[in-house]
Structure formats: C-alpha cells, structure tokens
Design a protein that fits this description.
27% helix, alpha+beta, Alpha-Beta Plaits, binds iron/sulfur cluster, 176 residues
C-alpha cells in the first residue's frame, strides 16, 4: 500500500526540453550557408603553411618521438645492458633482446637487439623504462620499406652516437 502512495505520476510532469520551431528564414538554411561561406572565405586570405615535403624537410623539436634508437658511447659500445625491460614493456611486442656476459665495465650487453619498425607504434614506453638511457626516441621519421624483412632493424641500424642524440637526452633529463 505504502509503495503505491510513493509512486510518482509522470503523466503530470512538465516537459524539461522545450523545442522551438524554426523561423521561416532558418528553414531556408541561407543564414547557415552564408555563415559557412564566411568561414571558408576568411581562410582563403590567411597565410598558407603547407610544407613542400620532401624538398623542404621538417626538423622536429626534441619532444618529438621518431623511431627508437640505441645510444652508442664514444668508444663505440652501446649503453644497453640487455636487461630486457624495454622488450617486456613494449605493447606492440616489437623488441627482441638477447643478452650475454660482456668483457667491458658492464656485466651484460645485447648480442642481438632488434626492433620491428612495422610493429612499433612510437609510444616511447621503451625509452621511459630503460634504466640506462640506452634507448631513446630519435628525430627520424623517414621510414620506408619495400620488403617486410627490411623493417627489422638490428644493432647496425639502431646504434646512433650519443652526441647526435644530445637534444633528446637533455629533453628527457629536464622533463622526467
Ligand atoms: S616505441 Fe613503443 S612500440 Fe616502439 S619499440 Fe618502443 S615500446 Fe615498442
Ligand atoms: S635498451 Fe635499456 S631497457 Fe632495453 S634491454 Fe637495454 S638497458 Fe634494458
């Protein structure tokens, strides 16, 4: 009985949305068309910023995430210690690392380090987790392949001298 008394009678409730009928000039759609043409015409007289790529190259800022590369020290040895964290975190399963004991100051080094550039989504997770700043996102965005196997980059293509990656390394240190 009490349940019946608490029920709300929605048939008497006032409508919340009040729809207005369009005026006759709105029904012609001429004002909307004119407004759209004004926006288009305003763009015509603005300065153009189309880049004539590839003749005119774009130099990305240090915050840009291009293809991931391995940092090479001055003595020609990679910083990577083959911990495998980057391969573990990579959401696209694009990295393959095989480590071995090394004769250098570090205990381990990657015998094999490969990134499948067709899988890479340039998320930068590998760069974030690396404890050695050994893998970073470069400014290279020009990647073209004619065969799938060409997209698998080994150490010979991944290693880049640290001086060339200075801007990105400094950006990471300043923003971490
Ligand atoms: S940038 Fe992302 S997808 Fe590409 S190799 Fe690194 S973790 Fe994997
Ligand atoms: S690049 Fe960094 S995270 Fe990846 S295996 Fe080498 S040291 Fe570990």
């Amino acid at each position: 009985m009490a349940e019946t008394q608490n029920r709300v009678d929605y048939s008497k409730a006032k409508p919340i949305i009040h729809r207005r009928d369009l005026r006759w000039w709105n029904k012609t759609y001429i004002p909307q068309i004119l407004r759209g043409m004004t926006v288009t015409l305003a763009q015509v007289f603005r300065p153009k910023f189309t880049r004539q790529y590839p003749e005119e190259k774009w130099n990305p800022p240090p915050s840009f995430r291009g293809r991931p590369v391995l940092v090479e020290e001055k003595n020609g040895v990679e910083r990577c210690v083959a911990c495998g964290l980057c391969a573990r975190v990579c959401p696209a399963l694009a990295i393959e690392v095989q480590g071995s004991e090394s004769e250098y100051w570090k205990e381990r080094y990657p015998v094999k380090f490969e990134i499948n550039m067709l899988r890479c989504i340039y998320c930068g997770f590998c760069e974030e987790v690396c404890p050695e700043e050994a893998i970073v996102m470069s400014q290279d965005y020009e990647l073209t392949f004619t065969r799938q196997q060409d997209a698998i980059f080994g150490k010979e293509k991944l290693l880049i001298p640290a001086e060339k990656l200075k801007e990105r390394l400094e950006f990471l240190r300043a923003n971490r």
